[in-house]
Amino acid sequence: MNKINVKCVASQGAVIPSYKTEGAAGADVCALIESPVTIQPGKFAMIPTGLFFEIPTGYEIQVRPRSGLAAKNGVTVLNTPGTIDSDYRGELKVILINLGDKDFTINSGDRIAQIIVSPVTVADFTLTDSLSDTQRGEKGFGSTGV
Questions:
Q1: Mind listing the pLDDT tens digit for each residue in 50-100?
Q2: Distance between CA atoms of residues 40 and 54, nearest Å
Q3: Distances (CA, A) of 74 to 8, 77, 104, 110
Q4: In this structure, how many other beta carbons lie within 10 angstroms of the beta carbon of residue 75?
Q5: What b/e readout covers 80-117, taking b as 16+ CB neighbours within 10 angstroms?
Q6: Which helix (H) or strand (E) holds 63?
Q7: Counting Cβ atoms within 10 Å, is residue 119 exposed (0-12), middle (13-18) or buried (19+)?
Q8: In which element (H, E) is residue 71 found?
């Protein structure tokens, strides 16, 4: 288990991330807002959480949608998966978008996203004039069928 230090604005009602079941990969994060925020269909909003993380070097936190919000309301994380880098110390804010057909209201304390702690592989990008051949080659979108 990886230790992640979390600074939480608990005095204002921030909730530390939590896993809801023993086998859950994602820990739920909750909104921390002064008043309800309504997102109209097709619009998005940045929702604060009151959470600040100290992520160990070599790891990231990925911010992902909650499947229930997406399935029931069409609400998802706009930049999914969002990445929190190990050197970021600012507040986690979640960009939610309403892809549904009705207004969606968020209240303080609502579970709005989930976070996954994931290892990061740092690449050594090397400039070259040629790449090895493969069967697929340069064939792009849809090249392997629908």
A1: 999 999 999 999 999 999 999 999 999 999 999 999 999 999 999 999 999
A2: 34
A3: 29, 10, 9, 16
A4: 22
A5: ebbebeeeeeeebbbbbbbebeeebebebebbbbbbeb
A6: strand 59-64
A7: exposed
A8: helix 67-73
pLDDT tens-digit readout, 97-132: 999 999 999 999 999 999 999 999 999 999 999 999
* Cα–Cα distance measured from residue 116 to residue 105, given in angstroms and rounded to the nearest whole number: 25
Which residue do the tokens 């909750």 mark? Answer: 30
Half-sphere exposure (Cβ direction) of 50: Cα atoms closer than 13 Å: 19
pTM flag (> 0.85): yes
- In single-letter form, the type of residue at position 2 comes to N
Cα torsion 7, 11, 15, 17 to 10°: value is 10
Cα-flanking dihedrals φ and ψ of residue 89, to 5°? -120, 10
- What token pair was written down for 118? 């994931």
